[in-house]
Amino acid sequence: MATEEVYYLSYVEAVLRHIELMRLLGETRFGVSDRSLIESALARPQQAARYEGADLIRQAATLCFGMIKNHPWIGGNKRTATTIIDEFLFRNGIELMITIKENIEMVLAVESDRWEQTRSRLGYANIRRKKYDQWFHTFAAL
């Protein structure tokens, strides 16, 4: 998939989404913990598109993984990750059709490495990639 056709969120947009969300929820503990970790997570979709030929769903999965595992915010990391993924998909014409419970289960699975427990000859990374891709493809409404 060509990256020119895809809308990617910028660092400033991600920070604004984070601040808006945290204020909306009445949180007082929020902000940027490490800018480079945010930028790293935001770059993952473009890298996946360029070097793996990843579709939008795969790109969203890599963005989700990076945002949750990098822990780049002072607080609200998982909530901000889901908001940023929703925004990325929405701006690219895709909506996730999930319940709050399904969203929470996915986020906790990513954070706890639950989908990485089984090892195969392909290794942990390939198992993780397949699980995330499968989850996002299941709930994406194109």
Summarize this, please?
The chain has 142 residues and is mainly α.
Description:
The chain is mostly helical and 142 residues long. The protein has one domain (3-141): Four Helix Bundle (Hemerythrin (Met), subunit A) (Up-down Bundle). It has helices at residues 11-24, 35-52, 56-70, 77-91, 100-112, 124-139, and strands spanning 95-96, 140-141. A two-stranded antiparallel ribbon has the order 1-2. The chain is globular and about 40 Å long. The two termini are 16 Å apart. The relative contact order is 0.15. Mean pLDDT is 83; it is low at 117-127.
In CATH, the homologous superfamily goes by the name Fic/DOC protein, Fido domain
User: Strand arrangement, largest sheet?
Assistant: 1-2
Order of helices and strands: HHHHEHHE
Taking the sheet with the most strands, its summary is: 2 strands, antiparallel
Poorly predicted regions are: 117-127
Radius of gyration: 15 Å
Question: CATH fold name, please?
Answer: Four Helix Bundle (Hemerythrin (Met), subunit A)
Structural class: mainly alpha
Instruction: Tell me the helix content.
Output: 55-70%
SSE layout and pairings?
Layout: H1 11-24, H2 35-52, H3 56-70, H4 77-91, E1 95-96, H5 100-112, H6 124-139, E2 140-141
Antiparallel strand pairs: 1-2
Throw out a few tags for this protein.
142 residues, mainly alpha, Four Helix Bundle (Hemerythrin (Met), subunit A), 2 strands, globular
